[in-house]
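Most newcomers find our protein records easier to grasp once they have seen one. Nothing more is needed to start thinking about how sequence determines fold. Here is such a record, shown just as it appears in the course material:
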Amino acid sequence: QVFDMSGKQLAKEKVTVWQSIKRMADTYLRPQQAEQGKSIKLAVPQSQQYQFSAKVLEVKTR
């Protein structure tokens, strides 16, 4: 979520930031392994400052 400095919500979106593909081992994220994340871009009105909030809703492991 992105807010202006008065707390008004400007944008809200669910985004998948990592997803492995079954039977493609190079897409799996293993313990103690890090990968470059992807940029998350949201269209909002131009401003000098913003506030944002993010939540991890689901992490699946097997």
Observations:
- Residues 1-62 form one domain.
